[in-house]
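pasting for the record
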Amino acid sequence: MIADVSLKPEQERALAEAAAKYERAAEAKERASAELAELMRAAYADGGQQSAILRATRHVWTREYLRIVLGLTKRKGRGE
């Protein structure tokens, strides 16, 4: 049987603050990802080349993922 070992109040508080910070960062990443995808779609719709879009975004996404975002290919392994 494992004994119940409680955290010190300062540890519990620090962990809770770190978890909240992590959640905020994850939400911010999701919003930034959606904004980036929308801007990439707009640039492509305006005639931007995939290589130019990737270069402008400093290759934060792969060419394969860009093609998925642009609707030019489907995700692998998704039963599609």
